[in-house]
């Protein structure tokens, strides 16, 4: 699996999670919902952003290595 495939799968999973959370949060408004968001949803979002940034950096590095080595393969 390529880095771009991994990134696409993460983005899709994040979108699915956020869509599900949005549906649930429309009806769930108590302190437990707030705690769940703060302790579960928000940390997942932060971790996903970090992972996406790391994948972007890895893609840039691989692209540079391929260019410097004369390998134009994806």
Strand content: under 5%
C-alpha termini separation: 12 Å
Largest sheet: none
Averaged pLDDT, please? Answer: 91
Query: Pairing-aware structural class of the strands and helices?
Result: mainly alpha
The residue ranges in which pLDDT falls below 50 over 5 or more consecutive positions are: none
Oligomer description: single chain
Indicate the percent of residues in helices: over 70%
Rg (C-alpha, Å): 17 Å
Q: How would you describe what is shown here?
A:
The N and C termini lie close together (about 10 Å). This protein is an all-alpha fold. It contains two helices and no strands. Helix 1 packs antiparallel against helix 2.
Question: Care to give the gist of this entry?
Answer:
The protein has 74 residues and is mostly helical. The chain has helices at residues 3-25, 31-69.
Which helices and strands appear, and what pairs or packs with what?
Layout: H1 3-25, H2 31-69
Helix pairs in contact: 1-2
Any key phrases for this structure?
about 70 residues; elongated
